[in-house]
Please model this.
Amino acid sequence: MKLIDYMRIQEGGYSYAVKLKDTKEAAQYKDKYEDIINSLQDKQYYEPDDCWLISRYGFTLLQALDKELFFAPNGYVSPAVTIKKQEHDVTGWEEIGKDLKLTPYDYQKQVVRFCLQESHDYSTLITAPCGAGKTLMGIAAYQEALKEGIIEGPGVIVVKASLKVQWGHEVRKFSDFKPSLVDTYKACVGPELSMLERRRTKYQKEKTQELKKEIEKLEKEIESKFNSQFDADLIILNYETLRDEVVAKKLLEIKPQFVFADEAHYIKTDTNKRSKALYQFNDARVKIGATATPVQRDPRDIFGIFKFVQPQLFPKKTAFNNLYVRYGYGFRVIGAKNQKQLNKEISPYMYILTKEEVSEQLPKLVVMQRHCTFSPKQEEVNKHFFDELKELAQEEKKLSQGKTPAQIETNERIQEISNATQARQTFLQELAVSEELLKGSNSQLAQKFITGDGDPKIELALELIQEIVSSEEKVLIFSRFAALQPVLTEAIENCKELSGTKIAYVRGDISGEERYNEVYTKFRDDPNYKILLCSNAGSEGLNASGCKYMIEMEPAESYAIQTQRHGRLERADSIHDTVFVYQLIMDNSWDTIGQKIIEKKEKFDMEIVKGMSL
Model:
């Protein structure tokens, strides 16, 4: 619900504990909420939690009001477990992060101060909303732990595969620490291993001294190349890489004293290989988990996460389940029990940030970049056609020397070069977004860009969409390529985590009436429409004041279009204190050129239009 926070109870004949949500949205309907509470004869005020205990009938009235005000869907499910925010002593936080390139916000400093307290064994689970800056918290925590002498040596950051590149960028952006992105043993030295195998096979037949020396040299090169991945301040790897036996063995030799597990809900199931791989490092001096959603199923998720954060807290799984998991017929899990006791057990190790706390200190518009990388085949294709562009540019420059504009315009070869250049630029831009865009082209040249290796940026977008939709928010997605809309639609429809999520569309080929229906009747007013896909036709005249998140699939063509896109969220009548934009960047692609174009245009805007020097 958007109006109230609530919890199922069985105390004194009451069925629910309710209180008005502490949000801007809910506050505007405080009178309506109080009218219903005051009308109930069967109620009781519970002072410790500042809430009302009410009957099922009273809850039904509030449920109907929520539906009327926010168009909430039917079928409410009571939360399996509620984690109550606790007040923690975080004195001495003011100087944290002062040596970083970007000074953390106050709330981020307070989180770091809490993480590095011996009173809870330097073991913490951070629960924070999307956009709270968990990356900066992790970097600042590592820096402060070194500074205070709590740890020595490199730290380990474990992340989702799609965020590994992003973490590397942000470590360099926010600090002077040296990051290293670790691959599995095979991914790191695969070609060298293949060569070594061939040399060993040949040596079995020939037994020459030359081959023996070559084998010894290769073995040293393989060891050196693999070990070089661990020569860093912050070692960054994804959960799957941590499962690699050779990688795990090397890390265990290093004995990292600082481990930060981003998206800690990835280890909610204690029996899977991903979780077990992380549990190997439970002896680390400082352990921090971070997630926006610590409980996605039921209390068993808490057990899985805390088996890393503080394994001594719940030593026996059977005892934990008996105490906190509610079972139904056939031992089917149907919910939670003893929630208050569970909350009391885990609260000393948790720092909970609310959306309201984050919004109070963040700027109005928060723009964040999320990076991804090509597959090796795609990288090869990308490089090949960039090299062709350079060759074409050199030829055009040579042919154009000494010619007038009129002569250039009528020169057949120069025009051929211009057309060839434009085609390659277009296909490189499409390759940076999705190969599916290239498949729709009739050009034989476009087909040469297709590798069949998948779409890393589409996968990254899906992960962000899932995270946003699961938090009961809506998302506006921009791409200059209208042809990307059916590609994204198919990807969303094939994602079981987004099953039932409806999509609205804005393109240049729809009428004004259709546009209004898509933007307002569907996306704004219908709770089932969580996603609005827009071409640049939606960058003007569209008010998305109820939307909190935007994804840009590629950099805008100009600073002006980027400003217009962001203006769809940054509205005077926005119901949110802070709105967030995710810009998806494919490394070493046309996206980097697009970024430079925007930076150049922004400089023009600041210097020429606003009269400010950069």
Summary: The mean pLDDT is 86. The longest helix spans residues 376-400. The radius of gyration is 28 Å.
